[in-house]
Write a structure and sequence with these properties.
about 220 residues; alpha+beta; 2 domains; 6-stranded antiparallel beta sheet; 3-stranded antiparallel beta sheet; 1 helix; about 20% helix; about 35% strand; Tail fiber protein
Length: about 220
C-alpha cells in the first residue's frame, strides 16, 4: 500500500471514529436529558408531597345551589399550618351545572393556632374560582374552621401540612364531614364556653358572603366568631 493510500485509509478511519463518537455523544446527551427530566419531575412531586403530605377527598352531596358547612379541625400543636382546598373544573359534579368546566377552585389558607384565644386565626392567602361559585363562607374559632362548599355531588381535594382528622371526632364533631341539615350542632361535647351546654349551630347557605364573590390575591384575615 502506497503512502497516499495509507494516509487516505487513516483519514477514513479517523472520520469514522469521529462519526461514531458524535453518535455516542448524542445518545449520551439524550439519556442525560431524559434522566434530568425524570429527576426534576420526581423532585417537584416529592416537594409537593412533603410540603402538603396530608391529602383527603371530600364529596358534598345535597342540592347543587346550596353550600354546606364542612368542619375542619384546628391545629393547637402545630401552631401554624397551611391548608389548600382545590377542585379541578372537570371533577365530579351535578349534571345540572353542565357537562364540564364546573366550579374550578383554589383556596389557600394559613392557619394559626395556640393556647390563647388572641392567637387563633385563619388567613386566605389566595382564593380563585372559575365557571361557578364554590365557596360561600369561611368561619374560624377556637376549635377549628368551618367552610361552606357547594353541594350537589361536588368533589373537593383537601391538602394540608397537618392532619385534618377525616372521619375522626373532635368534641363530638366529625372532621371533613359535610353537614346537610339546618341547625346542625358542632362541638356538642366541648366543656368550655362558648360551646358548653349545647355546642354551636351551623346551617347550609343559599347566599354567598360578599367577600367570597370575588377572587382574593392578597392575604386576607378571616374574622373569628
Amino acid at each position: 500500500m502506497s503512502l497516499e493510500q495509507q494516509v487516505a485509509a487513516l483519514v477514513t478511519a479517523s472520520n469514522n471514529l469521529t462519526t461514531t463518537v458524535a453518535g455516542k455523544q448524542a445518545d449520551i446527551d439524550a439519556k442525560v436529558a431524559a434522566k434530568t427530566a425524570e429527576l426534576e419531575a420526581w423532585r417537584q412531586g416529592a416537594r409537593s408531597t412533603m410540603t402538603l403530605p396530608f391529602r383527603y377527598g371530600v364529596e358534598v352531596g345535597g342540592d347543587a345551589n346550596t353550600y354546606y358547612p364542612v368542619p375542619i379541625w384546628a391545629t393547637p400543636h402545630e401552631k401554624c399550618g397551611r391548608l389548600v382546598i382545590s377542585r379541578h373544573y372537570g371533577a365530579a359534579h351535578p349534571s345540572s351545572l353542565g357537562p364540564d368546566h364546573v366550579a374550578g377552585l383554589l383556596l389557600e389558607l394559613s392557619v394559626r393556632a395556640e393556647g390563647w384565644a388572641d392567637f387563633w386565626m385563619t388567613r386566605a392567602d389566595y382564593y380563585g374560582f372559575a365557571y361557578h361559585q364554590a365557596v360561600a363562607k369561611v368561619r374560624t374559632d377556637l376549635l377549628g374552621r368551618v367552610i361552606w362548599l357547594r353541594g350537589g355531588g361536588m368533589y373537593y381535594d383537601f391538602l394540608a401540612d397537618f392532619d385534618l382528622g377525616q372521619g375522626q371526632l373532635n368534641y363530638g364533631t366529625e372532621g371533613l364531614k359535610p353537614l346537610m341539615q339546618a341547625d346542625s350542632i358542632i362541638y356538642s361535647d366541648c366543656p368550655s364556653a362558648p360551646y358548653k351546654g349545647g355546642g354551636a349551630k351551623v346551617s347550609p347557605l343559599t347566599t354567598v358572603d360578599p367577600i367570597w364573590t370575588t377572587a382574593i390575591t392578597t392575604p386576607t384575615p378571616i374574622a373569628n366568631i
